[in-house]
Amino acid sequence: MFTSEQELEDRLATPSAALTADVAGLDGDLVVLGAGGKMGPSLVRLARRALEAAGRGSARVYAVSRWSDGRAARALADEGVEVVAHDLMSGGDLAGLPDAANVVFMAGAKFGTSSAPYQAWAVNAALPAAVARRYRDSAIAVFSTGNVYPLVDVAGGGSAEEDRPDPVGEYAMSCLGRERVFEHAAAAYGTRVAILRLNYAVDLRYGVLADLAATVAAGEPVDLTTGHVNVVWQGYANEVALRSLRHARAPEAFTLNLTGPETASVRRTAARLAAAMGTEASFAGVESGTALLNDASRCHGLFGYPDVPLDTLIAWQAAWLSRGLPLSGKPTKFAVRDGRF
Q1: Cα angle for residues 92, 95, 98 (degrees, 5° grid)
Q2: Which of 58, 105, 163, 200 matches a 20 to 30 Å C-alpha distance to 294?
Q3: Which superfamily, per CATH, for 5-322?
């Protein structure tokens, strides 16, 4: 259990032996684009510590973002990360960004894009074209989303990588556009690419479990219309992103679903969170027979199962709220079914 954000940050940034071994085999430096988002700082810190544990402390880790949160930037700089302030959407040339043999692309736009869909396309599809040109000779791990798949039968095990994408809404369409642009780079330039279809990372300050726990704690009913969901510990998601750089390939990009092994019941999960917080959950709506669900068997076969199982995540999340520790205020909106964010 955690008693502070610092303890959580340290847990997220503790590399496994497998990650340490994999980064030892990487050549060159690492640049993380869009490093100021929800997952970026913990991924950057994890990469820095993994390289040091692997005896590659001289390798540089660059964290690129606008850095509207100066505290996060300073904290990373204190750990030896080279913080680069750059607005990727400024329209300027990306040539000024640092060279690196390895790239993690984390930039994206989701919330609010239903009223301004052009923003989703600009960030999620146009920007990747510029990044792919700038880093055409690098290995690039690209964060995508399970939203590129359609809603599927909750009893079917989830969408697999070989299933045809069928995105719902312009956000999801633009994310498929992101994938297609990087796939083009793999085919046209020989850029080595790994695409990670993630849903949904749990960090305790945000994520599906934080959404459910906050709803229960507020005494509000949990909407069951989207009655099933996938979640995964953010530390595992970050590790997979870094380890996937060794699997990036061309001329066909390496594509991987990234989530936990369970199809979690929203009703049962909310009830367990409530019990752990000493209260009761109330519910509204009726479970649909479909949901956004991914089959991450390929991921687990390559990288092992998440080191923090769902039972532990539920216990951690309940304790986090019970102790009054902070939430990000950025809900996942996992229950949205029409693709409008």
Answers
A1: 120
A2: 105
A3: NAD(P)-binding Rossmann-like Domain (3.40.50.720)
CA angle, corner 290, sides to 284 and 295, nearest 5?
A: 125
Identify each DSSP E strand in 185-338 by its residue range: 192-198, 201-202, 222-223, 228-229, 232-233, 254-258, 264-265, 283-284, 290-291
The answer to whether the pTM exceeds 0.90 is yes
Contacts of 50 (CB under 8 A, 6+ apart): 15, 19, 20, 23, 242
| In the chain, where the domains are located | 5-322
* Nearest in space to 29 (alpha carbons), one of 61, 51, 65, 53: 61
